[in-house]
Design a protein that fits this description.
Shape: globular
Number of helices: 6
Number of strands: 2
Radius of gyration: 17 Å
Structural class: mainly alpha
């Protein structure tokens, strides 16, 4: 299936991206990595093996858009608005649920420092990963 620049991602292409993204080593490398071009080059190669022709920039843009949309829907749900939905929410929830979130913690001297916590995790669900 050929897809050029500017073309919308098909459902099959998004599913292929999610399947690669859901791999533990990919999630680990993506978390906290600011310069991630190499990871997305690898993801694009993996997608080509699955018949999805997208370059690393398209993969990174789709990754960022899906993540943003997921967080928007998740925030709405946490605020009580269950009307906001997205197509791959449950798939993304399974991928992003265990991602550490950086939070600011107040120190004794009044300054803030970044600490990592994990949302929605428990020892039983972590060991299945």
């Amino acid at each position: 299936m050929e897809s050029g620049a500017g073309k919308h991602w098909t459902e099959e292409e998004v599913k292929a991206l999610l399947s690669v993204w859901s791999e533990k080593n990919i999630r680990t490398q993506l978390h906290g990595t600011l310069r991630n071009k190499g990871i997305f080059i690898y993801i694009a190669k993996r997608l080509q093996e699955l018949g999805v022709c997208r370059d690393w920039k398209q993969c990174r843009a789709k990754y960022k858009n899906l993540k943003y949309e997921y967080r928007t829907v998740k925030y709405a749900h946490n605020s009580g608005d269950v009307t906001k939905t997205m197509k791959f929410f449950h798939d993304l929830d399974a991928i992003l649920r265990y991602e550490p979130v950086t939070q600011l913690a107040a120190e004794e001297n009044g300054r803030c420092s970044a600490t990592e916590t994990q949302l929605n995790t428990s020892p039983t669900t972590d060991s299945t990963q």
